[in-house]
Specification:
heterodimer, A: mainly alpha, ABC transporter involved in vitamin B12 uptake, BtuC, two-stranded antiparallel ribbon, two-stranded antiparallel sheet, B: Rossmann fold, Rossmann fold, 2 domains, 7-stranded mixed β-sheet, 5-stranded parallel β-sheet, 14 strands, globular
Amino acid sequence: MSSVTIDAGPQAPSGLDSFKQTALYRFLIFPLGQMLVFILGATVLLTVFVYGLAVLFPEPRPNIVLVEQLNRQLPGMIISGISIGFVYAMIALGYTLVYGVLKFINFAHSEIFMVGSVIGFSFMSFLNSLGMLAGFNPILLVVSTVLVSAGFSGLLAVGIERVAYKPLRRAPRLVPLITAIGLSFILQDTVRAIASLTINDFNLTYPTRDIAWLQSPLNPLVFNIGGIDVRVRITAIIIMIAAVIMLLILNYFVNGTKAGRGIRAISMDQTTAGLMGIPVNTMISLTFFIGGALGGAAGALYGLNVGTVTPYIGFIPGLKAFTAAVLGGIGNVTGALLGGILLGMIETFLNGTLVYFPAIGIRYTDIFAFGILIAVLIFRPSGLLGERVDEKV
Amino acid sequence: MKTHKFLALMGSAALAAALSTSLVAAQDNVIRIASQTPLSGGQSVLGVSMSNGVRLAIEQNASVLEDLGFTVEYVPFDDQASPETGVSNAQQIVADASILAVIGHLNSGVAIPSSEVYDENDLVMISPANTNPLVTERGLDTVNRVCGRDDLQGPTGANYAAELGVTSVYVLHDTTAYGQGVAEFFAAEAENLGIAVLGFEGTEEASNFDGIIQPILAQAPELIYFGGIYNQTGVFISQARSAGYEGLFMGPDGFDSSELAAIAGEAVLGTYYTSVAGPASIYPNAAQFIEDYTAAYGEGPQPFAAQSYDATVIAINGIAAAAEAAGGLPSRADVAAAVRATENYEGLTGTITFDDVGDPEIGLYYVIEVASADPAEWSNNSILATLEIPSPAFAASMEMEPEATPGS
């Protein structure tokens, strides 16, 4: 998220200019507006696309009128798409932050996400074993679960950097890539071993059934919009709110604090930044902590949404998030947000539409989603927003 | 998924090392019985219980072979519910000449390729749980099973849905040989019965079903049939319910584990599933088994544990019969022939006679409804219907006989 705003208008009045310098605008209104633009843009684009399909193929299967089905499921698809999109975006930020600073892909990041989801499960189970879960304040419960997961995952990411990447900082870029893949295996099986030794279970189910506000009739919330029942899962709303708050904090940190400036300086030129008195190692650790914490928080939110996690849960979301980071422009923080939201929405909309086409179906959603990715990269090899030198982190 | 394969390779390499040492130690009078079930991973609750059933059967029945002067050993293998691991284990198993029978697998998708390896080496496999028709339809002399078949199980579910008055159904499957197979049989029979099949979709998604649920909600089917296994279907049921789906759920015997209740919670209440294996408690002969099993392992048997016990005893009896005929250590082919010849074996789960392709002549099929969201109450699920259906090969031979009699 940029601190430098490019004004496309011809001559903005000076009152507006000075308003753009205020903290309120830079750290709240601008990034919020950016998210809104991305979400609205993706929604409009995909809605037009699926209704276009409905015009081309009004009745893809006998007795299925595509327009009617889309009318019924459009609100649900938008909400699911945004919530999974925010999860992808939060994971994608971890890939992109590290790439910005160290110029390599931290493939162990998907497992940091997985660890976050398992820590979220452990924390809630711990509260449950104390008998405190049912009576816990809902907001406090979500906040504390997310914070615990984020903190643990952040520290884990820092530890991984120290052990597996720091000694290899002068090695060819391929070498830490391989240690990253190795580490992801180690993380998966360590978690699997710990889970089977402690609770002897592979499927870790969040103990949410004792939490009254997560059960029907509150969940899902049902709104009636234009005669269509729109059902919204509470966890989807939680993901959206939590993600927005964390992305705002990240934006403030990167663009509004001294440490953030240090990270940006290192991403431009590590050696020179070191000569200027910026503590390079501390800043790199900090980058890993932030990326890991976002991934861990995403893991806990995802776990709360899907209900059951396993030690192998990280691979697919991690891969999708990496794709999102590349789609938006790896190394570019705004790009990760855009890529995540776009990929989540594309996936959900395709799932909801392709299902009505005989012989295609949801099994082939990924082909279309990744086909779009390839098409974008052919025309914009550096991603949708590219890696802009003045803005990347 | 990739990691699974990688781990499987590493694991089998380690096993190969372990086995090559054990080969040296193999003696003429040692008979080993192997099992292949998922001992780790998402389906290990069933797989471990099956392995326990085999172990218990060997402990209690080894005397049949010990009286003939043999020592009996049990070697459990972990197929991780993965075809690659299953086949790689199978190659280790056939390499050990002292292994005369294999009990397994849980997953048809693993059993089918693994049994090709067994068959090339004449090693008999008795399956406690594989329901895909192709397991026996290939006509392999070494492959038998003590449970029913999906081309009868799927229609059993569809028939029950029709009895419930369901008029529309949405069918999902997990893209495996088992899940897709049983879902296809269900869907075909449902269409025959006039139930509208609103969708037929396969997915490997295991955690986030949001995008899949939206089009289902838009079509509002009265019933969702999911051909898959509890670790995936449980997550789906929980999410579909909390997304506002109000209809019924139904599935095949892959639903049959207390883990389904552990994963899906309250959402599982009222879920229907068909099974080729009722809870051990419904079999009149299994009371002693449940008692022994609980004493040995500290918890009750999961579904297919009793079937595993039966499969093992059939294997032991087959080996004993072949050994007596051969007057010493029998060949694998002799054992396979003796097992196929099994007639009126009085097991825990019923009387078993194998037909020409290795199916039990009469298969038992159950329709069960989940009665409690508490995993500990799983074995008390209500049995709504029990059907005795002859296997296709047996039914064909029954039809042939009346025609043959007047002719002869």
